[in-house]
Amino acid sequence: MGLTVAILSGAAVDEAVLRAEAARSAMARLLAVAGHDLKQPLQVALMAIERAVSDGVAPRAAARLGLASDALVRLGRELDDLARSSQSGDAPPRLDPVPLAPLLNAVVAEWQPYADAIGVRVQVRASALQVNSEAVMLMTILRNLVGNAVKYAGPGGRVLVGCRWRPDRVTIEVRDNGPGIAPERLSGIFDAFDRAGRRDGAGLGLGLHIVRQTAQALTHPIEVRSRRGRGSVFSVTAPRHRPARP
């Protein structure tokens, strides 16, 4: 009887694993299709904004349309990230030396207009370090972490992007002084459609899911620390690259 129970339990576990894998595969296909299909109306919206500006509008209206256009461009990049992370195969990405200074500056520049519009101060601590990574995929991770920090910091908030390093690795940290995340929410914040308990309708909660998928493909560990009322720190760690000495 004991052997029979063990066999049945093992079969049940295998079935549960298969169901979970099928659900993850179905979710990946859904996200990839959604990311692709949303690009067309996004391009239509961008062209409509460009036409409105070229036809001539008041300066304040042009500035607002510019912010809307920037937001749509970011959305297009996020949709590309979503499709790429959902379609990633088993082949590991090629890791090359990636200078961090231009990468961090580019990420912050992408979010700066939105941060300025809502009154968030974003600061980058320059770094001459290099890591072994894939530049586009690392950009995907940082774009989502910085954007998430700006949104959660809110009006009057601050976001700091910087690096800590050891001889063999570099940890890129994104800090915000927002409301923080409840301890019971931390374990699920990287799941698709989780918004860390937010009820303000700010996004679908896919950004951190994309971060996790991309970081796993790169084998770059990600971590989060948060205290209610004190803000959050998200980080990604990559191998440090040391240029060969002549």
Description:
- This is histidine kinase.
- Its EC number is 2.7.13.3.
- This protein has 246 residues and is an alpha+beta fold.
- It has two domains: 4-87, no CATH class; 96-239, Heat Shock Protein 90 (2-Layer Sandwich).
- 55% of the residues lie in helices and 19% in strands.
- The protein has seven helices and seven strands; from the N terminus they run αααβαββαββααββ.
> What amount of the residues lies in strands?
15-25%
Question: How many DSSP-defined strands?
Answer: 7
CATH class of the largest domain: Alpha Beta
How many helical elements?
Answer: 7
| CATH homology superfamily of the largest domain | Histidine kinase-like ATPase, C-terminal domain
Mean pLDDT: 78
Low-confidence stretches: 1-8, 197-204
**Helical percentage:** 40-55%
Main beta sheet: 7 strands, mixed
Label the CATH architecture of the largest domain: 2-Layer Sandwich
Indicate the structural class.
alpha+beta
Total separate domains:
2
Coarse shape: globular
N-end to C-end Cα span = 71 Å
Please name the CATH topology of the largest domain: Heat Shock Protein 90
Element-by-element helix/strand order: HHHEHEEHEEHHEE
Radius of gyration: 21 Å
GO molecular function: ATP binding; phosphorelay response regulator activity; phosphorelay sensor kinase activity; protein kinase activator activity
Enzyme class: transferase
EC number: 2.7.13.3
Domain Histidine kinase: 33-242
